Amino acid sequence: MNASILAFRRSWFAVLLAATLTASAPAVARGATHGPDSLATGWRQLDLQTIESRRAALADLEARVLAAPDQAELWTALARTALASQRPRRGREALEIAATIAPEDARVQVELGRIWKQYWLAAMDSTDLLSAYEAFGRAAKQDPANVDARVELATLSILRGRPLVAAELASRACLLDSTRGDARLVLGCALTRLGRFAQARAALASATAWLPEDMTRRLEDDAWFLENTFEEARETGHLSASSARAYWTANDPDLTTPENEAELDYRSRIALVLLLFRRGDEVRWDERCELFVRYGPPTQVAVNPNDSPFWGYQYPRRSFIAYVPPPIPYPFQRQVWMYPEYGIRFDLWDQSLRGLYRPAITDGVPRATASAAALSGKADVVVLQGGLGVFRTMPPGSRLLPIAAEVSRLPAGERTRLLVHATVPSSGADWVASCAVSDADGRVLQRVAQSMALSACWFDEERVAEFSLDVPEGRYRVDVSVNDSEHGRGLVRRAIEIATAQPGPRMSDLVLICGSANAPGLGEQIRLEPNLRHVVPDREALSAYFEVSGLERGEDGVARFTYSCAIRRLESRRRVAARLLRDLEVTREVEQPEDIRRQVLEVPVASLPEGRYSLSVTVRDAVSGLETTRRTEFARRAK
Q1: 327 with 315: CB under 8 angstroms?
Q2: Residue 12: pLDDT band by 50, 70, 90 thresholds?
Q3: Element (H, E) at 97
Q4: Which residues does UniProt assign to the signal peptide (predicted)?
């Protein structure tokens, strides 16, 4: 036996080894009846999950190790039992001995890795996670056909931010054994983090055919997550597939893709929990699992804060009773999971002392909820259930692009044209913009993509894309996304309502444009160069575009209308500004023989000081006397 084993002086295992070195031959012979195949009794005692059963299992394994100290499987089993009995030091020492006895046995290395993983779940120490990763790596190297090693190594690779490595390992595991549901689970997790959403969805769906019933139910039934939304989930603990599908469809964060990124992130987190928190085919589901699914891996974890291995809790006594002794405190393990990016700090207690954590005992109802202030402005996540779940809208590691988008409504008869513009800062990357429009029922009416062109407004600074779609009255959702060749992605969502047409002239939204009045064509096909920054530099005029329809015709068959524009300063009411603005009120009278009037107005604003302003345009039908008004804002800045 290696000399390093004897280095554990003054330890519990050193005593066992000393006794083994002086044991007689009959003691060694007893190892024949205490080998790895005869551990069923010990495991049954351990599964009882009581202090007495764990002590009995530990004592049984101690006797087996004394009888056969050269069997690495026994040391591994002893380490697992010591860990379950909340004796981590004994577990660590047993692991080191097992690794010394059988350094080339892949099965032992897999068991070592699993125990290190369990120890990491108990202590949340990154060195334990690294030890587990290295053990699984040794097992995969020693036995390339070992599926368990590859699945476990792929799972930890995801936690370590290496999804490509995880995908390669999981793919190989699926080829080695196509019936392994856990291999398909980890493959789906890796593909989700790589942004290969269609393949990830297929991998996760195919895994359910090869998983135990409990794991399949966890993966597919959303009742626990949606219990605050659906009455059927609260009453029966089960949610119908149609209700769940309707919920996820309504909360798809990016309609420009056929997949639901938030749902895939949710499913892949569940899959990762099933892989991390399992023991065999059993999943030890506790509050940590729920937090992991709702918010992902914690940014920080504090285990037994203030350097105290155990905390004592006493149930508070509401009134004094003279003949009753004070409450007796009992110990428990404590973990504090922190997500500072979401404003969450949640206290968890293991009162059973067997690795099952529940919310800390408080006077109120403990519930981790993401802070609205912390999530404000985060375009790469979607918040569900009022902050009880935060999921990604794009793969981890994606570079968030600053994207601007504007949706303009151009009425034309009984329908309205939605004109969508998107811009991003220009660079050397290849840009592709996508647009999707859905109705109030969640049906996607359009999904289209195009390459982005140089902007006429900011030629050397921006790229622009334009989309259009004719729709009737109703409520719509417009999603615009931009991708580049360097893993950058931006997403903007807009809610648009097209109200029922009222009597009188119909006027489109005001669209600030670049250049002179000849910029857009005035024929049937128009192309605008929008100024999405809403900034007018010095020495340039303000240009805006709008359309007018629904005018009544006079006795001569010609429609007439007047339009007036006015500019008001938003930031100041100084008399000087007011005097300047009186000179910027303009009224024009127009004859319109056609059904639609496409109008470009140009207002000189060089005399205005820097600041923010509002532009309002009022159209009055000269025949009916009815009028309508549209407004927008812009800023004057130095060029």
Answers
A1: yes
A2: very low
A3: helix 88-101
A4: 1-29
The DSSP code for 557 is: S
From the CB of residue 27, how many other CB atoms can be counted at a distance below 10 Å?
15
DSSP 553: B
Give the other-Cβ count within 10 Å of 19's Cβ.
Answer: 12
Q: Which of 317, 335, 334, 318 is nearest to 326 (CA)?
A: 317
* Best CA proximity match to 281, nearest among 186, 211, 364: 211
Structure-block tokens of residue 205: 């769906």
In sign, the C-alpha dihedral spanning 293, 299, 302, 303 is: positive
Identify the bridge partners of residue 482 per DSSP, sorted by sequence position: 433, 490
Beta bridge partners of 487: none
Report the C-alpha gap between 451 and 432 in whole angstroms.
4
Confidence band for 580, pLDDT divided at 50, 70 and 90: very low
* Locus of tokens 């912390």: 374
Contact 412, 549 (CB under 8 A): yes
Encoded tokens for 562:
């007047």
User: Are 149 and 177 a contacting pair, CB within 8 Å?
Assistant: no
Please state the φ and ψ torsions of residue 248, each to the nearest 5 degrees.
-70, -35
Stretch 352-370: mean pLDDT, rounded? 77
Residues in the chain: 639
Torsion of CA 155, 156, 160, 165, to 10 degrees: -60
Specify burial of residue 93 (Cβ count, 10 A radius: 0-12, 13-18, 19+).
buried
Decide: 476 and 493 in contact? Cβ < 8 Å: no
Question: What residue type is assigned to position 490 of the chain?
Answer: G
Confirm if 367 and 387 have CB atoms less than 8 A apart. Answer: no
Cα–Cα distance between 51 and 354 in angstroms, integer? 9
Backbone angles phi, psi at 115, to 5 degrees: -70, -40
* Sole residue written with tokens 């006079």: 554
pLDDT (0 to 100) of residue 311: 52
Transcribe 413-463 into DSSP letters.
TTEEEEEEEEEEE--SS-EEEEEEEE-TT--EEEEEEEE-EE-SSSTTTEE
State how far the Cα of 274 lies from the Cα of 182, in Å rounded to an integer: 9
Taking the alpha carbons of 79, 84, 89, 92 in that order, is the dihedral positive or negative? Answer: positive
Give Rg (Cα) of the chain. 34
Distance, in Å, from the CA atom of 293 to the CA atom of 283, rounded to the nearest integer, reads 14
Residue 380 has pLDDT above 70, yes or no: yes
Q: For tokens 């155990």, name the residue.
A: 310
Q: Longest C-alpha distance within the chain, in Å?
A: 123
- N- to C-terminal Cα distance for the chain? 80
- Confidence (pTM): 0.80
Summarised one tens digit per residue, pLDDT across range 483-509 is: 887 788 889 999 999 888 788 888 889
Element (H, E) at 347: strand 344-350
- In 3-state terms, what secondary structure has residue 629? strand
Backbone angles phi, psi at 514, to 5 degrees: -105, 155
CA distance 183 to 188: 9
Check if the beta carbon of residue 574 is closer than 8 Å to that of residue 539.
no
